[in-house]
Amino acid sequence: MMRLPLFEFRAPQSLSEAAQMLGSTGPSAMLLAGGTDLLPNMKRRQQVPRTLISLRHIRILREVRCDKSALSLGACLTLDDIVRNSRLRHDCAALWQAASQVATPQIRNMATLGGNLCLDTRCNYYDQNYEWRKAINFCMKKDGDICWVATRSPKCLAVSSTDTAPALIALGARVRLVSQSGEREVLLSDLYNNDGIHYMQRRGDEILSEIVLESQAAWSSTYWKLRRRGSFDFPVLSVAAAVKKSADGIIEDARIVLGSVASRPLVVADAAASLIGRSLNAETIAEVAALTARFAKPMDNTDFDRTWRKRVTGEFVTYALRELHGDDMRAERLHA
């Protein structure tokens, strides 16, 4: 049985109190929201903080605020809160679909939106117990100096496996980061680095407190996920797409984001830009799917063969764009 290491537990009642605790405790502290990723990592000794600062009692982090121009989602909303929100299901389909496909109902009842955005990168050589990792002399991401995915790589190639980040990036989301010294707001797409160890630009003293979305009234979006089983599993490929159409069906703006093919969600700007000024017909979709697949360079550190996963990228982009065109692709796949 794997047990948690000893740690100090602290439970602030306000965001400012949490920021003060985090700033004064330093790098030995970590934030605890739902704990569905952090606590298993602690049991495997992948992360061993001396102090856990719980965000569970900070009410403002569980709020949904909206007006005509923007929607604000507290970072400690559970994924189940997202799934149960009918407005999000209608206005932010990609986010709703992503949240509804994370793990299992029990985990979604605990896991938070902010926690999923900050999800640790994953790798077959890293997500093992301590004894297993010790047997291979550890890896670059924790306690070692070699990336076993590519032994000559100067950086860690662990993969970003968050479901909600690609969806929210496709929706143009921004995030608010709060610390003792103030707060800042950044595009979610700018929060990530393509580095398996230093995969986020959130500073160690910052709390991701809020996700902000501009009005999605003119946009349609979708999220497609590849995994071995129909539930529980992390994605080994995901595609989030969003388009803004004119009244006659011409694409005025578009975003395409790939997940689980790099150490960060991958924004495929060139493929999205090629959609602008065109309609979603078979020729356009095939061209954009092929262009997007060129950007996918999956590594051999998750489930399935990497060459097959690269080939399937184009098919999943096709499914996503056909759904945005109006085809009932999910029913078609279900009965295939």
Task: Please characterize this protein's 3D structure.
- The protein has helices at 15-25, 38-43, 79-83, 86-91, 93-100, 105-108, 113-117, 130-135, 164-170, 269-273, 282-295, 306-325, 329-334, and strands at residues 8-10, 29-32, 51-54, 64-66, 70-74, 174-179, 182-187, 207-214, 219-226, 237-245, 251-259, 266-267.
- The protein is an alpha+beta fold.
- Helix 2 links the parallel strand 2 (29-32) and strand 3 (51-54).
- It is 31% helix and 20% strand.
- The model has no long low-confidence stretch (mean pLDDT 96).
- It is built from 13 helices and 12 strands.
- Helix 5 (93-100) runs antiparallel to helix 9 (164-170) and helix 11 runs antiparallel to helix 12 (306-325).
- The chain is globular and about 60 Å long.
- The strands form 3 sheets. It has a 5-stranded antiparallel sheet with strand order 4-5-8-6-7.
- It has one domain: Uridine Diphospho-n-acetylenolpyruvylglucosamine Reductase, domain 3.
Q: How many E strands?
A: 12
Low-confidence stretches: none
Kindly estimate the percentage of residues that lie in beta strands according to DSSP. 15-25%
| Outline type | globular
Q: Please name the CATH topology.
A: Uridine Diphospho-n-acetylenolpyruvylglucosamine Reductase, domain 3
Please state the structural category: alpha+beta
Largest sheet: 5 strands, antiparallel
Order of helices and strands: EHEHEEEHHHHHHHEEEEEEEHHHH
Mean pLDDT: 96
**The number of domains:** 1
Name the CATH class.
Alpha Beta
Radius of gyration: 20 Å
Helical residue percent band: 25-40%
| Gross CATH architecture | 2-Layer Sandwich
User: Could you give the order of strands across the largest sheet?
Assistant: 4-5-8-6-7
Distance between the termini: 42 Å
How many alpha or pi helices? Answer: 13
